From TrEMBL:
It is an enzyme of class 3 (hydrolase). Residues 7-140 form the Nudix hydrolase domain. The keyword Glycoprotein does not apply. Monomer. Keywords: Hydrolase, Magnesium. The lineage of its organism: Bacteria, Pseudomonadati, Pseudomonadota, Betaproteobacteria, Burkholderiales. GO terms for molecular function: nucleoside diphosphate phosphatase activity; ribonucleoside triphosphate phosphatase activity; thiamine diphosphate phosphatase activity. Pfam families: NUDIX. Belongs to the Nudix hydrolase family. NudJ subfamily. This is Phosphatase NudJ. It comes from Cupriavidus yeoncheonensis. Transmembrane segments: none annotated. Its EC number is 3.6.1.-.
């Protein structure tokens, strides 16, 4: 039996798995461990749904709009927080969908160096550069055809700042 500390809690994150022509959109970002690769991803903010969070995070990290079409899956992993250095359990909701227009005047989020397009083989060839092992797990599930309807997710209006249940 594993006993968790009393102050344990999970950190909820979202990620966008975006593929075009056999290549996946990743961001290269500064971390405590140096430059790492990740899907456009980030934390769920108070008052937003998971879908709104992935739309926002994709825009902030890539300057592109994003229209989620399916839930790819829910993933859990543990890592040291790049902000606090503490052990954190991450719960990642990964989505796939359509990449929209680029806002050429938009600055990328703090810590994001650039966006890159990589094939699955290129991603597999550099696991030491992944921000988390969940990067490759999401790519593998995408390639395996895993997709779940977005209506599998429900957000009660009491959670949302605007009352919008999407």
């Amino acid at each position: 039996m594993c006993i968790m500390p009393r102050d344990w809690n999970a950190s909820v994150t979202v990620a966008a798995v975006i593929e075009r022509g056999g290549r996946f959109l990743l961001v290269e970002e500064e971390t405590r461990d140096g430059l790492r690769l990740n899907q456009p991803a980030g934390h769920l903010d108070p008052g937003e749904s998971l879908i709104r969070a992935v739309i926002r995070e994709t825009l902030e990290e890539t300057a592109h709009t994003f229209e989620p079409r399916a839930l790819l899956g829910c993933y859990m992993g543990r890592a040291l927080s790049s902000r606090t250095g503490t052990d954190v359990t991450y719960v990642r909701f990964a989505f796939t969908g359509d990449l929209g227009s680029l806002d050429t005047g938009r600055q990328l989020d703090t810590g994001i160096v650039r966006t890159v397009w990589m094939s699955a083989d290129e991603i597999r060839a550099c696991p030491e550069r992944h921000r988390t092992p969940l990067v490759l797990a999401c790519v593998d599930d995408y390639l395996a055809g895993k997709r779940f309807a977005l209506d599998a997710l429900y957000t009660h209006p009491s959670v949302l700042a605007t009352g919008d249940a999407s």
